[in-house]
Amino acid sequence: MITKALTKSKKIALVAHDNKKAEMLAWAEKHKEKLQGHILYATGTTGKLLEETLNVTVEKLKSGPLGGDQQIGAMICEEKIEMMFFFWDPLEAQPHEPDVKALLRIGVLYNIPVASNTSSADFLITSPYFNEKDYDRQIMEFGDYVNRSIPK
């Protein structure tokens, strides 16, 4: 295992499906003070709405169906994102469902804190590890997998 420190200032992804954007905005506004001081990334429309609502800078990526979910997944792999709040809609089929599943898988694989609804988001953002304490996150070493023997 490799240990990666999550410091008090974190790189956070914020993603919300269309039917969850209002919920994400209300949640973010409620926790505006706690989100300040962190580096925020978001998929396209969510990022624009968060900037307007919170009056903070958000690094906006592409819209989820246009590759934004994949961009965030790549950033998690590159250790450019350390935490994710992803309010996904369990009742609505998404045109980019494989991307959504891949993003959630990458979040688990790289052992980042992920919240998928307001309850889990409230628990994460009120944890002492969010703003008060550093946290040592354990990540698997992938050397064995990368160097595995592949039959020819």
From TrEMBL:
Root EC class = lyase
Tell me the function of this protein. Answer: Catalyzes the formation of methylglyoxal from dihydroxyacetone phosphate.
InterPro entries in the record, alphabetically?
Methylgl_synth (IPR004363), Methylglyoxal_synth_AS (IPR018148), MGS-like_dom (IPR011607), MGS-like_dom_sf (IPR036914)
Tell me which domain of life the UniProt entry assigns to the organism this sequence originates from.
Answer: Bacteria
Using the record's annotation, list all stretches that form the MGS-like domain: 4-152
Reaction(s) catalysed by this chain, per the record, are: dihydroxyacetone phosphate = methylglyoxal + phosphate
Which GO BP terms sit in this record?
methylglyoxal biosynthetic process
| Keyword set, alphabetical order | Lyase
Q: What is this protein called?
A: Methylglyoxal synthase
Report the EC number(s), separated by commas if there are several: 4.2.3.3
Question: Quick one: which residues bind substrate?
Answer: H17, K21, T43, G44, T45, T46, S63, G64, H96
- The active site of this protein is located at D69
The family note in this entry says: Belongs to the methylglyoxal synthase family.
Q: Which GO terms describe its molecular function?
A: methylglyoxal synthase activity
